[in-house]
Design a protein that fits this description.
The complex is a heterodimer.
Chain A (H helix, E strand, L loop, with lengths): L23 H17 L1 H8 L8 H10 L18 H13 L6 H16 L12 H13 L5 E3 L15 E3 L10 E10 L7 E6 L5 E6 L5 E5 L10 E15 L1 H39 L1 E2 L2 E2 L4 H30 L4 H26 L11 H13 L4 H11 L7
Parallel strand pairs in A: 1-4
Antiparallel strand pairs in A: 2-3, 3-7, 4-5, 5-7, 6-7, 8-9
Helix pairs in contact in A: 1-4, 4-5, 4-7, 4-8, 5-6, 5-7, 7-8, 7-9, 7-10, 8-9, 9-10, 9-11
Chain B lengths: L7 H14 L7 H10 L21 H10 L11 H14 L2 H12 L5 E4 L15 E5 L2 E8 L10 E7 L10 E7 L5 E6 L8 E12 L3 E2 L5 H14 L14 H10 L6 H29 L7 H22 L25 H8 L9 H12 L20
Parallel strand pairs in B: 1-4
Antiparallel strand pairs in B: 2-3, 3-7, 4-5, 5-8, 6-7
Helix pairs in contact in B: 1-3, 4-5, 4-6, 7-9, 8-9, 9-10, 9-11
The chains are: A alpha+beta, B alpha+beta.
């Protein structure tokens, strides 16, 4: 992506705040994505889709991933991606959430991609031998860069950054005749963006713990869709019965890659929350200007105006927190862990509040199935749990900024 | 030497050249600051001849850093916040050439401290309903009325004043704006003691005060427009500030107490503290984002959010602070009547911070009025039906 390279200096001091505005490139990306989603997605389609057998929109994802290049935003140009940063990813996420678009951008282009970037550790996808774990990760990134393959990290959506390495899947050992693959056994419940994924990144307990690539179509892999609170990001349960996995990282490298993926997930989900909250506010403001009761627009009543002013204030605060988290991830700022916890704690509550006000201030129509307000409410509530509840992130902050709990 | 003044390097060269000619150690403070003003290095974004060089506001920081490094005397900006933040932009926008030259240099150097005679006992949130009368008498105007909540009035030599010149037209149309000499006969300043025990503010009684017509700012009847410029300039001045450090606000002393006194910690307080810390840090980042927007020439409406958030957070954090102190929270440092130059949150105890911060959601526009402004001007929501809009001021029910 043009002009997307961030040259912001790495700040050692949180008082040196990086650029929190939107660059021209970020705005252009968000605009292009917004036009595409308005034309081809839209909340009417999202509403129809949540009751269809296929809740994810593959055609829409292809357009977002391949035509607009969103699949490869974080992937280096050398590997066929756009070589952009978490700032651009955040701008894209805001727009996707504004349309409650059922596409696996967060799970594939952000979380899985971040895990693979960490596992690849800069290794080039050359076809030379030996085929190391890092090269396997790099090879997968190259296949994902143009949207050809969609991947998901096989952890529960509720997993917070800093969580212990998952143990629900373990390495059951290679079978006789297996070449270069391990056999994985176990289950993972409530995984986001795995339904449309072709490849899974599976953390598995072993000696040492490690991350494996597992083909969704391989023998021994099964997925069961979950009736989810948020059907615009339908979860699924995964099980592995001696499923073949290709090692991409092990030991500390695996833990680091997993933590990076979860942190990126939390940060970009916070950006989604800002986009969702802004759209809830916009929809509600438009509605209260039109809706008349007592012979005047209900938006002229101070009781409603003050509530919407409070939502606007919260969204403007949340935007700063979300931008800070994205900027810190983009430059490897040492304050990134604080920034991510801060953003996810704050933006989660802002999005839920905005969606709840959206339902309430729409009155009766807001409580219907027909009106899209509930799509936003359900997504906001689910997102507040995704990648760590506000409480979990505040607990993380307590440790990071030295505000210890009561003994 | 060609110097490109519009760059950080160019303005740094200019500042260094000035400092080479003017040694702050050798010159008196007033002489030095007068010379600095005349060289256009007071506020570089002001026009040439009025203390500036017509450059971007962001370059002022470069000049200030050079002057600070050279040990230059201050212009006592913290004593003259209303002068610098509100009076000067108003004079620049609506004052005539003669007024600008007569007032701005003395203002910037701190020779004149300014205050703001806006609010009245009967005109708080509804400022445009104000009743202080100005009646034309030859070359003068004669002013009679009462103003209230005037910070710095006991120190100020000049004031921004809004008056009613025509009671027969609707309230917004009959106002006229002046600069008032606070030493003129008929100006009486009395301390207004607030619930903290001290008196930061004043009541100002104006009895047949004569103001020459040459001190009128803007046309007769257009005082509301000028007053709005004054109120808006408060917001813009945020942009010239620098990013504040983490925990630099009221959360700082609370976090310090938490760290140093483990015995005070409980689970319930811990959760509240983390919420407040999060909100305070997000507010800091939002303030920085606003500053960046202004510096990039993209002023957004977020400024109106800043004061709302700051008021609520100050109140919640200081309330928490008192509670955290437990039985010590039952003590208060000093109820005696004092005359501080400004609110001093950090020189006093948690009880003072708690009480003083109640005013944060009242002074400078109540939080309720700010929500109206956000709803109507930012979100574009329709106004409440107005019963006073087309009624002559003198006929309003009161």
């Amino acid at each position: 992506m043009e002009g997307s390279t961030q040259v912001t200096a790495v700040a050692q001091d949180p008082a040196v705040v990086p650029d929190l505005l939107y660059s021209d490139a970020e705005r252009a990306l968000a605009d292009a994505l917004g036009s595409l989603l308005a034309d081809r997605g839209g909340t009417d389609k999202a509403l129809a889709r949540i009751e269809s057998p296929q809740t994810y929109d593959d055609d829409l994802w292809h357009a977002v991933a391949a035509e607009l290049g969103c699949a490869g935003l974080l992937i280096p140009e050398r590997d066929g991606g756009a070589g952009a940063s978490y700032r651009e990813a955040a701008a894209a996420a805001e727009t996707i959430a504004a349309f409650v678009a059922p596409v696996p951008f967060l799970g594939s282009a952000v979380v899985a991609t971040t895990v693979l970037l960490s596992a690849a550790g800069g290794a080039a996808d050359s076809s030379g031998t030996p085929f190391t774990p890092a090269r396997a990760a790099a090879y997968m990134l190259r296949r994902m860069a143009d949207g050809g393959v969609t991947a998901a990290l096989a952890v529960p959506f509720a997993t917070a950054p800093g969580a212990a390495f998952p143990t629900s899947v373990r390495v059951a050992g290679p079978r006789p005749g297996d070449a270069g693959v391990a056999r994985l056994r176990g289950a993972v419940s409530g995984v986001a963006d795995a339904l449309p994924a072709g490849v899974l990144i599976v953390p598995a307990e072993g000696v040492p713990n490690a991350l494996y690539l597992v083909d969704m179509s391989a023998t021994g892999v099964s997925k069961a869709p979950v009736t989810s609170l948020d059907m615009t990001r339908q979860l699924c349960d995964l099980s592995f019965d001696d499923a073949p996995g290709t090692l991409i990282a092990s030991g500390p490298g695996a833990a680091k890659a997993l933590a990076a993926g979860l942190a990126a997930g939390a940060a970009i989900l916070a950006a989604e929350q800002v986009g969702l909250a802004q759209r809830c506010l916009d929809m509600t403001v438009a509605y209260v200007k039109e809706r008349r009761q007592f012979a005047r627009p209900v938006g002229s009543f101070q009781a409603l105006k003050h509530r919407l002013a409070d939502v606007w204030v919260a969204v403007s605060q949340a935007r700063a927190a979300s931008r800070y988290a994205a900027a810190c991830l983009a430059t490897g700022n040492p304050d990134a862990r604080v920034a991510v916890a801060l953003a996810k704690a704050y933006c989660s509550e802002t999005a839920v509040a905005a969606a709840q006000e959206c339902v309430q201030l729409h009155g009766g129509i807001g409580f219907t199935w027909e009106h899209p307000a509930h799509l936003y409410l359900k997504r906001a509530k689910a997102d507040s749990i995704g990648f760590g509840t506000p409480d979990a992130h505040r607990a993380a902050l307590a440790a990071l900024v030295n505000l210890p709990a009561a003994p | 030497m060609t110097e490109n003044l519009g760059t950080a390097e160019g303005i740094r060269v200019r500042a260094k050249a000035f400092l080479a000619e003017h040694d702050p150690a050798e010159m008196g403070k007033q002489d030095f600051n007068d010379a600095r003003f005349d060289a256009g290095l007071a506020w570089v974004h002001y026009p040439e001849g009025l203390g500036g060089l017509g450059l971007p506001r962001s370059l002022q920081a470069v000049v200030d850093a050079e002057f600070a490094a050279a040990g230059a005397p201050s212009n006592d900006a913290d004593r003259n916040a209303i002068g610098l933040g509100m009076a000067a932009p108003t004079i620049l926008a609506y004052g005539n050439d003669e007024q600008q030259h007569r007032w701005l240099r003395r203002l910037w150097t701190g020779q004149d401290i300014w205050c703001q005679l806006f609010s009245e006992p009967g005109a708080g949130s509804d400022l445009a309903a104000l009743a202080t009368r100005a009646v034309r008498d030859g070359e003068d105007w004669v002013i009679t009325g009462q103003k209230v909540w005037t910070s710095q009035a006991h120190l100020a030599s000049r004031a921004l004043l809004v008056t009613r010149t025509d009671p027969d037209v609707p309230k917004h149309q009959g106002l006229t704006y002046f600069s008032c000499d606070m030493t003129a006969p008929g100006v009486e300043v009395r301390p207004l003691r607030q619930l903290t025990g001290e008196a930061e503010f004043n009541e100002v009684f104006l009895t047949d005060v004569r103001i020459p017509d040459t001190d009128r700012i803007g046309p007769v009847g257009e005082g509301w427009k000028v007053a709005n410029a004054t109120l808006m300039s408060e917001r813009v001045s945020i942009g010239s500030g620098r990013a504040s450090a983490r925990e630099s606000g009221m959360i700082g002393p609370v976090a310090a107490t938490w760290r140093s006194r483990p015995a005070l910690r409980t689970r319930g307080l811990h959760d509240r503290l983390l919420r407040l810390w999060t909100e305070a840090e997000v507010a800091r980042l939002a303030g920085e984002r606003l500053r960046q927007q202004l510096a990039a020439g993209q002023p957004g409406p977020e400024g109106s959010a800043a004061k709302l958030v700051f008021a609520r957070l100050n109140q919640e954090i200081s309330g928490f602070d008192v509670e955290l102190a437990g039985s010590d929270g039952l003590r208060y440092d000093d109820w005696s009547m004092r005359r501080p130059e400004r609110a001093n949150f950090y020189g006093r105890g948690p009880g003072y911070r708690y009480l003083r911060s109640r005013g944060n959601s009242i002074e400078g526009g109540t939080s309720e009025i700010l929500r109206n402004i956000i709803a109507e001007r930012v979100l574009g929501l329709p106004p409440e039906p107005r019963v006073d809009k087309d009624v002559p001021w003198k006929d309003l029910p009161r």
